[in-house]
Every structure is written in C-alpha cells, then in structure tokens.
Amino acid sequence: MTARAADRARYDRATAHLDAPLAIVDLDAFDANADDLVRRAGGKPVRVASKSVRCRALLERVLAKDGFAGVMSFTLAESLWLARSGFDDVLLAYPSTDRAGFAELTGDPKLAAAVTVMVDDPAQLTLIDRARDGGREVVRVCLELDTSLRLFGGRVRVGARRSPLHSPAEVAELARSVVRRPGFEVVGIMAYEGHVAGVGDALAGRPVRSRAIRLMQAAARRELAERRAAVVRAVRAVVPGLEFVNGGGTGSVQHTVAEDAVTEVAAGSGLYLPRLFDNYTSFSGRPAALFAQPVVRRPGVGVVTVLGGGYPASGAAGRDRLPVPYLPEGLRYDPQEGAGEVQTPLLGSPADDLLIGDKVWFRHAKAGELCERFDALHLVEGDRVTATVPTYRGEGRTFL
C-alpha cells in the first residue's frame, strides 16, 4: 500500500460516520508543516497569514507553538473581529476603505493597540481621518514596499501590482507624511515578494520554464535584499523606533530571513499545503487540508460522477486553479466538463472500484479559500476525527 493509499484508508475510516461533502484537516500533517516553517525561519518569528487558514481554532493552535507570533489579516472587519476575540497582534496586509471599521478602530483603545493597518498612499490617511467619527485613538501604520523586479529600465516588470512605493526615497517620504500627521504612528514595513514566495520553480514536465523561474527568482532575491535594506535604513532615519519589518511567504521563508533587515516573516499556505505549493525545490510538506465529494453516479466503465466540486481558486483562470482529484490516485477530470458546479465526472480506472456513496478526496489549489465552501473542518488524528471546528463561514463571517 502506498503512503497515499494509506492516507485514504485513514480518512475514510475517520469520516465513515459523516456524509460528504465535507472538509478535513490532518493535524499530524498540519503540525509537521508548522514545525517546518519554524525550522526554515531560523529563529525569526512567523506571522500567520489568516487568509490561508480562515479558522480561528487553527489560528489559535498554530500561534500556541513556539516560533509563531501575530496574525496577518486580509480585511479590516476581520482584523477587528480577531482583536475582539483575543488576538492581540493583528497586521492588516491590505489597505482598506472600510469607514465604519475605521470609526470602530479609532474609538476603541484595545482595538487600536492590537491592529496595525496598511498604508501606501497619503490619501488612505485622509480617508481614515474622515472616518474617525470622533475617535481619537492613534492608528498604528505599516508601510508597504513594492517588491517587483523591474528590468530594462522598467519596461519589464515581474511581480504583483501592489504598492506604488518602490524606492527608499518614496517609502521614506510617506513615513514623513505619517509622522507629520497627528493620530498616526509608523510601526512597521511590509514587503511581500509574491513572485518568489508564491511561484513554484519545479513545474512538472516543464524543465526550461522551471529553470527560467529559478533564474528570475535568484535575481529578484538579490535585488530586493539590497533595496529592502536601503528602505529600512531610510525609514529608520525618520522613525527610529520602527517595531518590525515583515517579508516573505511560504515559498521564500528561508531566503527572506537571511536578510538582516527583516525581523519577521509571514506564512500561511504552508500549513495546509494546497496543490499550488507542490512545485518548489526549496521545501516540501504534507497535504493537510482536503475535501471529500460523494460518488452519486456511475455513468459507465472508467467513470464516476461526484456531487459538486467546482471550487476554482482566485488568480488568473487556468487548469492550475482547479482542485485536483487526489484520492484514490489516478482519477482525472473529463476535459469536456471539468469541475462542475453541481456534479463532476471523473475518469480513470480507479473509478471502477468506487461505489455509490464512496468518497473522492480533493486538494484545493489555494489554502484558505477552501474554507469559503465549508462551514466546518473535521480535525483528523490518525484514523479518528477528534474535533470539529467552525471555519470563518461557519461563524457567519464572510469578509470577502
């Protein structure tokens, strides 16, 4: 029996009393992945990216481990909810225009002390001031640096289009704008190198492209390390008491922590290890989050149909954004139908051994987005479900 077949047997035994569709997290794999992130971080704290987890119970579990500290959130409403739930260090990773949320933040000293907001434009400060509605609490601010690699005089750009702040001078000027403005305090810098941390460099069957990605990422790491250090020096000249410099992501942890200027790294996807994180030479992990769909039809030889399953991930549309049939091994989509909203035909010889009511296990393309489809996660240890915990959706929280 292969390791994957053994996992399937465990998951089927653990959930035999449960009807699919359902989602699980294998806690042994989850904890092993967490330990690997800490190892790769080399002593620097790992801030957990909540969008890749979207379950308070699992956020609490990982933050109880040595080596993890703080949450990186994705909306202001989520940040305030987490702070009210007892999370005392929440960094909002994206600018917000949530005026009601800013009124709440600036009117509550506990929230203002726990939540740091992201800024890359003075206009965002103006919006916050206009939203205060009498709130006078000082807003903790983090400045975001654009990490993109610019080549050929800027004619070629590699990396996500996030912050407009690219140079040390630009970031330092925004820091001065914040310092001059009452009611705000610069406490950190963030720089997320998604083109390194979130792009696999070992694509199956594509050696030339994989080599090109590795060359690009090596150049990007060198350029960013030099520029990030210069940015930190420039900002510290304005804000000597800067508390943190955040960088990285699951795919770049060990590279990012090697920079002296970086004080902490962010990671989240590496806990669940979705399919987009299979193609890395720098690390490997164990799939921890899976979902099961029930077999509802057997249309013919070598074919079964499962209920639902059309859960594409965000990003540029493509086959790599689809969940992948994982267990039993050897199933594939019908190219004429793909993953369906209500039903999904699956092809392959393993289909002939599946009966009506059997479970087919899938891996989502991205991490936390799976939790937008399920209101609970069944936590598996060995071959037993030892707890069932709500996702954000299960707590009635759909932030995006």
How would you describe the overall organization of this protein?
There is one protein chain. The protein has 400 residues and is of the alpha/beta class. The chain has helices at residues 3-14, 27-41, 56-63, 76-84, 99-106, 109-114, 122-131, 168-179, 194-197, 207-238, 253-256, 269-272, and strands at 22-26, 46-49, 68-73, 90-92, 115-119, 139-144, 149-151, 156-158, 184-191, 244-247, 264-267, 289-300, 303-307, 324-327, 332-333, 343-347, 359-363, 376-381, 384-390. The strands form three sheets. Strands 1, 12, 13, 14, 15, 16, 17, 18 and 19 form a nine-stranded mixed beta sheet that branches. It has an eight-stranded parallel beta barrel with strand order 2-3-4-5-6-9-10-11, surrounded by five helices. A two-stranded antiparallel ribbon has the order 7-8. Strand 10 (244-247), helix 11 and strand 11 form a beta-alpha-beta unit. Helix 5 (99-106) packs across helix 7 and helix 8 (168-179) packs across helix 10 (207-238). The protein is globular. 44% of the residues are buried. The mean pLDDT is 94.
